[in-house]
Amino acid sequence: MRLSDSYMDLCNSIDAWKARLEGYKGELKVLTRLARLDGPSDIKAVNYSEVRSGGFVQMPFLEALERIQKIKSHILLHEEAIAHLEETKRKMEEKVSQLSGIENQVVYMRDFQKKKLIEIADELGYSYDYIREISAKTRRKAAQEKKK
């Protein structure tokens, strides 16, 4: 597997963890509202003899607390996983950026920094045509390695 493929997989994994984290945070808000844990809105008195209020069914308090605790533990787990994955990404970027040689620089700038070939040529001080040749060469090389 190419290094840039591993990097892209890592980035996609981080995005997936973040999406799930946002889902849990949204679910936490809904549960808080369903259990009326955010307090009554503009109600002057609360009738505890009836569970139904405001057009939707209020969730039983203990059930809501249990579910909220589970969601909070999922949120914590996801935040820790994201922090770990982002640290891995940072270390990977740091190591790859230290690789020497024009081919490695082009691959890093193209695949990791998502720069256009013209930007790479300008930044490295080479002609666009030369950078394009190197880019094509590295892509062919990577494709051959994938076939093996």
Topology overview:
Layout: H1 3-34, E1 52-53, E2 56-57, H2 61-97, H3 102-112, H4 117-124, H5 128-147
Antiparallel strand pairs: 1-2
Helix pairs in contact: 1-2, 3-5, 4-5
List the defining traits of the structure above.
mainly alpha; 148 residues; 2 strands; 5 helices; two-stranded antiparallel sheet; single chain
Task: Tell me what you see in this structure.
- This protein is mostly helical and about 150 residues long.
- The chain has five helices and two strands, in the order H-E-E-H-H-H-H.
- Strands 1-2 form a two-stranded antiparallel ribbon.
- Helix 3 crosses helix 5.
- The radius of gyration is 26 Å and the shape is elongated.
- The N and C termini lie close together (about 10 Å).
Structure described in brief:
The protein has 148 residues and is mostly helical.
Query: What is the rounded distance between the termini?
Result: 10 Å
Which strand order spans the largest sheet, edge to edge or round the barrel? 1-2
Estimated structural class: mainly alpha
**Strand/helix succession:** HEEHHHH
Strand % is under 5%
Low-confidence stretches: none
Mean pLDDT: 84
Number-wise, the strands total 2
**Number of H- or I-type helical stretches:** 5
Give the overall shape, derived from the CA principal axes: elongated
Rg on CA atoms, Å: 26 Å
* Biggest pleated sheet: 2 strands, antiparallel
Helix percent reads over 70%
